[in-house]
Amino acid sequence: MKARRSESAHFGLFVAALSVLFSLTSIAALAAPYAAMVVDARDGKVLHSRNADTRLHPASLTKMMTLYIAFEAVENGEISLDTKVKISRNAAAEPPSKLGLQSGQRIALRYLIRAAAVKSANDAATAIGEALEGSEAAFARRMNRTAKALGMSNTTFKNAHGLTESGHMSTARDMTTLGRHVLYDYPDYYNLFSRRSTSAGIKTVNNTNRRLLNAYRGADGIKTGYTRAAGFNLVASAERGNKRIIATVFGGRSTATRNAKVAELLDLGFTRSASRVALRKPGRPDYIGSNKGAGKTIRVTTAVKKSLRPKLRPTQGAPEAPKPAIVVAKAATPDASLVAAANVIEHDIQSALLQAQESSGATLAWVEPEPTPPPQPKVVTRISTAGGRHWGINVGRYGSRYAAEKMLLKTALAEMSTLDGSLRKVVKNTRGFEANFMGLSKETADLACRRLQARQITCYTLGPS
């Protein structure tokens, strides 16, 4: 009888303790401070804010910065999406949510990026940071340098994943700013955030934001976050017609109430935003490379400045300050078949360059050929005769001159900062048509190849002949 009473008492204490635990969890979520921000993504205009500059726990919204730096590193040739990352004991030991990586395992960077973006995997986020900077602490320093460059003045990162740590803080305004930069600075990667599920190499993972993506028309991202200290956080973006809105919420009480609040804020944004707004993308900061090893900061800047409208020819009147230009010489040829091919290439070039001009700001100018016809069509950018520019790169062999010219144009537009001033040259041999860029220094040729290879474009350097 006494034993039964003892067991009953112990069971009662267990139930009471469990009730207290659930109560404390609920209270913690309710106590998380609330903050919100809504902006018109097209020009950054603030449409609503509440406690937007209060420093709070960002939770896994942190991973937007981890991913932003990963995109930056891939684009600048610092690492490749196919680089096999060795998982450390530290990364493998991260608590859930996680992909389930094992210490010593090797996995391609692309799968770590997918896991961090879609599943919000903490082990994947830590592995990304360690792969880029050697340690999580060093990566946090890079995160803070990048945050400062983006204008996130009230944010301090201590880790790559966002689990609660003393001093790891941000604001609704700063996270909205970061979300806008992710959207506009790296649009080629943005589709990751709208995937309901994706392969992460070792398994298929589901999106932590799939409920909002499925329920709200036009929603296509960006990132969820939850810890007991933070509550339920979300940076969401949605597009309807020609409008795009970004809404951020900190301190939601549950997934359902957070999503309902975000939907309400997105509706508010679409209602308050103007129908026609000139797109003013945020300025992308200079590339801040890895400090791993050399202990130096690498900066790569481009010479192209923004120009609101394309100018086909110089206008009369007062002279303007010189602007960067893409100069293309049209070649004439007496052969009818080559004329037809050249016209097709010219049409593709003109369309592509006009598109590139509007996005990059370079001024476009067409230069008519001299009366004396050259022996074959050539597409030429500004040729430099500066000393030491005797190197080149090869971007593949093709079955026709047209295909080689088209690849040269595509590559030139993708790598304007490194290939500007080079000569695009197609060399015919018994095996096909070689697509080459000539007139580069050894350093520029090496850099261009690294950047192109990081984008999965075939490239190798050509030494002085």
Overall description:
The protein is of the alpha+beta class. Helices cover 39% and strands 20% of the residues. It is built from 14 helices and 17 strands. It has helices at 2-31, 63-75, 89-92, 109-119, 122-133, 136-150, 172-185, 187-190, 210-215, 255-272, 336-360, 401-414, 416-419, 442-454; strands spanning 35-40, 45-50, 84-86, 106-108, 197-199, 204-206, 219-227, 231-240, 243-252, 287-288, 299-300, 325-329, 363-367, 391-398, 423-429, 432-440, 460-462. The strands form six sheets. A five-stranded antiparallel sheet has the order 2-1-9-8-7, sandwiched between helices. It has a four-stranded antiparallel sheet with strand order 15-16-14-17, with helices on one face. A two-stranded antiparallel ribbon has the order 3-4. A hairpin with a 4-residue loop joins strand 5 (197-199) and strand 6. Helix 5 (122-133) packs across helix 6 and helix 11 (336-360) runs parallel beside helix 12 (401-414). The chain starts with a helix and ends with a strand. Mean pLDDT is 81; it is low at 20-30, 294-342, 362-372 and 377-387.
Q: Beta fraction of the residues?
A: 15-25%
Number of helices: 14
Report how far apart the termini are: 100 Å
List the strand order in the largest sheet. Answer: 2-1-9-8-7
How many strand segments? 17
Structural class: alpha+beta
Major β-sheet profile: 5 strands, antiparallel
Stretches where pLDDT falls below 50 for ≥5 residues?
A: 20-30, 294-342, 362-372, 377-387
Average of per-residue pLDDT values: 81
Shape designation: globular
Helix content: 25-40%
Radius of gyration: 27 Å
